[in-house]
Specification:
By secondary structure, this protein is an alpha+beta fold. It contains six helices and nine strands; from the N terminus they run ββββαββαβββαααα. Belongs to the prokaryotic Ku family.
Length: about 300
C-alpha cells in the first residue's frame, strides 16, 4: 500500500514553485504496545476525565482548557478562542536561505519527513533542487504553517529525493552550560590519549542503523509470544558487578584486547607470499521470526 501524505502544498523559491508532499519518515507502529486491564475481571480499561473536587465524570463538551497564572488560579479558554490564534497557512513551504550542511546543529532537529514531488509537473523543479543541494553540499531553510504551528523546516538532499526536518525554536533548546556547569576541568595524561586513539582506530566503523539492536523490544516480543503459547520465560541471570579498576588500567586492558582480537582474526600468510588483505565481514541478516502481535 502506498504511503499517505500528511501534508501537501508547494515548495517555493522566489518565483519558482512546484507541488510537494510530506511523508512521515519515522514510525512507532511496529513497537509492541500494551492495553490496560482489570486484573479481577479481565476487562479492558478506559480513560475518563473526572472533576477533581466532585469526583464526577465530565463530558467532552464540558471540558475546556486553562492556563495557571498563579498557584490554583487559572485563565480558562473556550476551544474557539484557542482555534482563533492558529495562524492561517497558505500551503507553501517558502525557502528563505541556504546554509552549508556543516553548519547544521543536530540539537535543533525535531522530526524528519520525506519530501516528495506531488505530481509529474514537479519533476523538473524537484530534480533541480535536489541536485543543487547535493552538489553544493548545502541545505535549504524554509518556513511554513504545518500541523497548526508556524515551523522552520530544513530541506536536504537524501538519496534520490529530499528530506524535510522540522526544527526546534531557539527557546526550546536548553543551553549546554546548564548541563555542563558542574564539569570540573581535568588534565589528561598523554599515554591515556594514545591508548584512547589506538582503541578508536581499531574499532573504526561506519554508521549502519540496520545493525542497531533494540534489545528491550526483542525481549518484549519474546515474552508476548511465550505467554501467548503458554510458555514461561525465565528472567536472565543478574550480571555480577565488575571489579572497579583505574581508568589507565581499563584503557590498557581494552587496547590489549583489541590488539589480540585483531591478531587472532588475521589470516596466516603462506611461506614466501604476503597475506591477502582481509575482505570486510558481511553483516549477518537478522533472521525473521514469527510476525509480531500487539499485546492486549
Amino acid at each position: 500500500m502506498a504511503p499517505r501524505a500528511v501534508w501537501k502544498g508547494y515548495l517555493r523559491i522566489g518565483e519558482l514553485s512546484f507541488p510537494v508532499a510530506l511523508y512521515t519518515a519515522v514510525s512507532t507502529a511496529e513497537r509492541v504496545s500494551f492495553h490496560g486491564f482489570n486484573r479481577k475481571t479481565g476487562n479492558r480499561l478506559r480513560r475518563i476525565f473526572v472533576d477533581r473536587d466532585t469526583g464526577k465524570e465530565v463530558a467532552r463538551d464540558d471540558q475546556v482548557k486553562g492556563y495557571e497564572v498563579e498557584p490554583d488560579s487559572y485563565v480558562v479558554f473556550e476551544p474557539e478562542e484557542i482555534a482563533a490564534t492558529v495562524p492561517e497557512g497558505d500551503k507553501a513551504l517558502a525557502v528563505n536561505a541556504f546554509i552549508a550542511c556543516a553548519e547544521i546543529d543536530d540539537l535543533y532537529s525535531d522530526r524528519p519527513y520525506y519530501l516528495a514531488p506531488a505530481g509529474p509537473e514537479a519533476a523538473e523543479g524537484y530534480g533541480l533542487l535536489r541536485e543543487t543541494l547535493k552538489r553544493r553540499n548545502v541545505a535549504a531553510l524554509a518556513g511554513a504553517v504545518l500541523f497548526r504551528r508556524v515551523r522552520t523546516v530544513l530541506v536536504r538532499a537524501h538519496e534520490d529525493g529530499l528530506t524535510a526536518t522540522l526544527l526546534n525554536f531557539d527557546y526550546e533548546v536548553r543551553a549546554a552550560a546548564e548541563a555542563f556547569a558542574d564539569i570540573a576541568p581535568v588534565r589528561i595524561d598523554k599515554e591515556m590519549l594514545d591508548l584512547a586513539r589506538h582503541i578508536i582506530a581499531t574499532k573504526q566503523g561506519r554508521f549502519d542503523p540496520a545493525g542497531f539492536d533494540d534489545r528491550y523490544e526483542a525481549a518484549v516480543v519474546e515474552l508476548v509470544q511465550a505467554k501467548a503459547a503458554g510458555r514461561t520465560v525465565k528472567p536472565p541471570k543478574a550480571r555480577k558487578p565488575e571489579k572497579v579498576v583505574s581508568l589507565m588500567e581499563a584503557l590498557r586492558r581494552s587496547a590489549g584486547m583489541e590488539a589480540a582480537s585483531e591478531a587472532a582474526s588475521e589470516p596466516a600468510a603462506k611461506p614466501g607470499k604476503r597475506a591477502a588483505p582481509r575482505a570486510p565481514a558481511a553483516r549477518a541478516k537478522a533472521s525473521g521470526g514469527p510476525p509480531r502481535r500487539k499485546a492486549s
